[in-house]
Predict the 3D structure of the following.
Amino acid sequence: DDLSNKIAAGEVVERPASVVKELLENSVDANSQWIKIELLEAGLRSIKVIDDGDGIEPEDCEKAFFRHATSKIIDEFDLFRVKTLGFRGEALASISSVSQLTLRTSTGDQTGTEMIVHGGEILSQQKHTKRKGTEIIVENLFYNTPARLKYLKTIHTELGHITETINKMALSHPDIRFECYHNGKRMFFTPGNGNLLQVIQQIYGKKIAQNMMKIENDSLDYKITGYIAKPETTRSNRTFISLIVNGRFIKNPVINKAILDGYHTFLPIGRYPIVVLQMEMDPYLVDVNVHPAKTEVRFSKEKELFDIVKQSVYDVLHQQTL
Ligand code: ADP
Ligand code: MG
C-alpha cells in the first residue's frame, strides 16, 4: 500500500544522491557504454539519466515499478555472487513513490515505451519513438513526503554527495563514458576507454594524475591493481581513498588501515593519501551487509588481504624513492 511504499522508499532514497546512485547502477546493469546525467538544482528539481543500454521491453515496463518484482536473489542476499549491481528490485518502486517520474525506453528492435508515474501511481503508458536505451527523469523528489524534504541540506551539500556518487561510479567503471551536467553546465566527463588513470585525471586533475604510481600485485586469492599518489599530494581527509571490489565500490576500514600502514613512513599526522585500489577476488571471499544502499563489506580472509594490500602500497612507495 501507499504508506508502506513510502516507508520502504525512505530506506533506499535518502537524498538526491541515492536516486543518482540507483539510476546509474541500473544503467550499468543494462550494459550501457555511455551514461549522461543532467541535474537541476542538485537534483532537487530534476535528475535525468540517459543511457545507451539494453532498454526495457514494453511488457516489462510496468513490472519494473513493482517492489521485488525483479529480485535476482534466489537463496541468500549475497551481492558479490550476483553479477549485477541491483538485486532487490526496489529502487524504481521506491524512487517513483516519492517523485514524479518519466521513463522512456527502447530495446532498439521494436517501438519504445513512455511511462509516467507520480507518487507511485502509473498515470500513463504509451508508445514512444526512442533509440535503443533508457531515459529516466525524476522530478520534484520528496514532493509528497515533506518530512523527508526537510532533512535535505543545502544545494551545495547535496551536489557534493551526488558528485561523490558519480566519481565512485566512474572510477569503478573506466570502460563506460560518463557525462554530467548541472544546471546546463558540464561538470564532469570521462572518455570511457577503460583507462583508469584518465578517469582519475578528470576527477582529481592533471597534476594528481601525473603523480600517480601504479600498483600491481597478483597473489593466489587476490589481484590488486590501481594507483596511489606520491607523498607530496596527501590530503587532510580520507575520502580520497577509493576501494573497488570486483567492479563494485565499497567501504572498508580494514583495507583503509592497510593502505595507511603501507604508506606510514610518508604520512605526516592528519594527512591521507589519494588512492584508487581495485581488488579482484572470488566472490566467496566477500561478505556484504544486506542493507540495500550500504557498501560495507567483510572479507573472510581479512588478515591475508590486509597484508597483501599493505605490502603492495609499501613496495610501490619504496621502489619509487630508492
Ligand atoms: P533492480 O535493479 O534491483 O533489479 P530496480 O528497481 O533498480 O531493481 O530496477 C527494476 C528493473 O527495471 C531492473 O531489474 C531492470 O530490468 C529495469 N531497468 C531499470 N533501469 C533500467 C535501465 N536503465 N536500462 C534497462 N533496464 C532498466
Ligand atoms: Mg537497480
